[in-house]
Amino acid sequence: MNRFKVVRADTCISCCLCESLCPYGVHRRVEGHTRILPPDDRKCIGPACEANDFFCVANCPTNSLSLRESDNFKSLGDPRWTADMILATWHQAETGAPLPLDHPANEGRSGGGFDELRLVLPEKTPRYDPDDMSTSMELNRRGTGERIRTSVPFYGGGMSFGSISVHTMLARVVAARKWDTFVSTGEGGYPKLLVPYSDSIITQIATGLFGVREETIQRSRIIEFKYAQGAKPGLGGHLLGDKNTPDVARMREAVPYTSLFSPFPFHSVYSVEDHKKHFDWALSINPKALLSAKVSTPNDVEMVAVGSYYAGAHIVHLDGGYGGTGAAPEIAKKNIAMPIEYAIPKVHRFLMAEGIRDEVTLVASGGIRTALDVAKAIALGADGVVTGTSELVALGCVRCGNCESGRGCPRGIATTDPELERQSTSDWGSSILDNLYSSWRAQWCELLARLEMSDISELVGRTDLLRYRQRPAKEVGE
Fold it and tell me: Which terminus of the chain has fewer CB atoms gathered within 10 Å of its CB, N or C?
């Protein structure tokens, strides 16, 4: 898809002058024939070409060519995920090339969240070697459990078997292994196809306990307890009947084609002591595992984070309301819980005041779209982030919002339908995500160089490097 559409009228005489003039390959004819093919809009640079002597519209002898904005482009995206941002993500995923730090596609037009924050950067970038830059994240900052460090400041968020295709799950895990990071299963367990990659998989335990088995806990290096989801706190999880295929139902030990709901909350957890019992149960099965607590962002989120630490969590995962799939109700996403950009500094400061910040890995999710969103979250106080929607967009998601339907995903990403699943392969998907991560890392390296830093951990809590577009800088994070 391109932003512009080149229209060729019936008055075209197939003189092929446009083919000989255009250096981008927009116009092409079949070898051995004089008939010109329809224009390849993806290669057109649009009105910017008007300044060139070879501009096809101006040079056409029969005035048969015209240029307009693509109808597909105009219908693509929304204020949070603009059409420019989606196209830029696709370009990064196809090429691995980073966006300039001042590129407009680094931000949306939502009027809130990370779109209202900007990083203050020096104008010039000094010479630097990306190999000298560290973008890693320490996942265990306590004295117990395995020491684990990722090469990038993120891991993949939970997307369950059933909510997305098995090809999408495998693509995410393969790419995560290449980058020494992880992907959460989401609730529902994971198919045998992913077992060889279990050292890169976080097993999630949610309130419905779907797919929770001793063997999945035993082979996981990280166990994630999902106490709440930022896009729908207080509502629990749900998988509608047409996505609950026999394979999904078998993993979840449920009846096929029935809707499955996870209650809210864990009805066995109402205190820090109950919280600790949960963790102790998991550690009795896998004593070496790291423990993660995924929570939403209520007004007292800092107390929840501290409670999770004293219960034994290595990782506190704050999940904000901007994320979630198209299956999350809009009224919940927009009206429940605290925006993630307020929750991160609030928890960061409280953990520092408690004297335990150095023992907690604080990660955030819920609206992380770009490499600069990651950097902003870290500057607000997080050690790293958890990604989700950005990976799906890289794989071709057009943000249509039909994720809850078995045949609703036109790209075969969020589906369990065998026919739709065949639109992509895990090999292609993993290469696409590999390119995206490579592009992001290049952006972080340039950002660190501009800030005269060599390690992304130096950016943690640097709210002085942020400016809020509508308020003075001193109010950011207060």
Answer: C
Element (H, E) at 385: strand 384-387
What's the pLDDT tens digit per position in 55-90? 999 999 999 999 998 888 888 888 999 999 999 999
What single string gives the DSSP state of each residue in 207-237? TT-TT--HHHHHT-SEEEEE---TTSTTT--
Q: How confident is the model at residue 230 (pLDDT cuts 50, 70, 90)?
A: low
Strand 137-138 relative to strand 183-184, pairing: unpaired
Using CA atoms, how far apart are residues 448 and 463, in angstroms rounded to an integer? 15
3-state class of 138 per DSSP?
strand
Handedness of CA 393, 399, 405, 410 (dihedral sign): negative
Distance CA 333, CA 321 (A): 5
Q: What is the pLDDT of residues 455-475, one digit of tens each?
A: 999 999 999 999 987 654 454
Q: How many CB atoms lie within 10 A of CB 434?
A: 18
pLDDT, one tens digit per residue, over 269-280 is 878 898 899 899
What is the spatial distance between Cα 299 and Cα 233, in angstroms, rounded to a whole number?
Answer: 12
CB 189 within 8 A of CB 208: no
Residue 36: predicted pLDDT: 87
Assign 136 to helix, strand or coil.
coil
Q: By C-alpha distance, which of 4, 6, 23, 18 is closest to 62?
A: 18
